[in-house]
Amino acid sequence: MKLRKSTRQDVERIIGIWCEAVDATHEFLQADDRAAIEREVRDVFPSLDFIVAVNDVDCPIGFMLLEDGVIEALFIEPARHRQGIGRALVNAALARHGRVSTTVNEQNRRAFGFYERLGFRSAGRMERDGQGRPYPLIRMRLDATETTLRVRLTDIELEVDVSGDGTPLLLLHGALGDRRTLAPVASALSAAHRMIVPTLRHFGPPPRATGRKAFGTASQAEDLIDLLEALGFERAHVVAWSYSAHSALAAAFRRPDRFASLFLYEPGFPTFVTEPGHLDAVSADGAEAFGPVAEAARRSDWTEAARRLIDGAARREGWFDGQPAAIRRIHLDNADTIGLLFGQTPPVPLSASELGTMRIPVTVAWGDQTRIMYALVSQAAAAGLANSTCLCVPGAGHLMPEEDPAGFAALVARHMASPA
């Protein structure tokens, strides 16, 4: 099941779902009223845009009409009730708006209970419906300016923090991270954007969402596309850091129709680096950075492996131990994923020529104090992309999103103000 915007070809099936769902749940309607409401639906629905839930053959099985944070209609095929489709549609509303409201028929206790289980609360009563018929309506509201959604993908559920209001903007963490990592960045941007910050597959404190897919950029790219489809976004702005930056590039290459823009901070895989001297430099710097990490990983000393990985990324011994306790906690909660990093599937083999076919606007940024491998990979990405802006950040290193979240948020805000 995925979500998408409706098309004109969907209208008859949408009306059919409405008829089936109303007959199954609105037994309180008088026959004449039921027929009159259907005539109104058939007159109005062809001119409206819906978010539809579709099955594996792209046939609608449910739909939602969402207008400025108001769920005007939400109906599911009766045979598909209690399969998470309604929750997925409400999640799509919450991914777009911090405050969501709806009205339900007072006699429709199942609908009232559904919204109440999702956190909606009563906010008033109307004696008659919008057409003056004697069917009382209950107003229901959910203030979800900051909340955590559980979003169903193919084989797992991801925990996704959402906050703020405005244009939706996804933030993707890197290695040794989870949704907590970029929470300060999200907070700094939430006045202008609806921030969407997931914990990616295999990451986060236990219990983790692992599913059936192997660890690697290929599965991350697939999950990113699935996440956008699960939330019903036609095109999304995505910010990705380090490991996830390559995954985001791979996803955007595969499905450019799903991406409005990318902001990439220091991607790390040199699949599109073409100059032999630069490849040698990346390889040598990678060996220097990750060799000590690998030695600790072979002993399954994940705390020491995390310390060496973070110190190496910062280019400063003792950096890990000097970080605030909250940041160290995130790194340690994810320290054992270092074993997955060393056993990952090969990175998606994006080439420079493939980058050159991408037309979406991309900002590629790196710090002038970062490791040479990140600088060279970032510069190669910026040079290969057809519609890129490159940005070398004075005084910044690889860990800028953690070290200076306000400064990083300012870079993203600049990108969003003029993504081309």
Written overview of the protein:
The protein has 420 residues and is of the alpha/beta class. The chain is built from 15 helices and 15 strands. It is 40% helix and 22% strand. Helix 5 crosses helix 15, helix 8 runs antiparallel to helix 9 and helix 8 crosses helix 13. The longest helix has 23 residues.
Protein traits:
420 residues, alpha/beta, 8-stranded mixed beta sheet, 7-stranded mixed beta sheet, 15 helices, elongated
Overall SS class: alpha/beta
Instruction: Please count the helical segments.
Output: 15
Let me know the number of strands: 15
Q: Tell me the major beta sheet.
A: 8 strands, mixed
Gross morphology is elongated
**Helix percent band:** 40-55%
Mean pLDDT: 96
| Spatial strand arrangement across the major sheet | 8-9-11-10-12-13-14-15
Measured between the Cα atoms of the first and last residue, the distance is 33 Å
Order of helices and strands: EHHEEEHEHEEEEEHEHEHEHHHHHEHEHH
Strand content: 15-25%
Unreliable parts: none
Radius of gyration: 24 Å
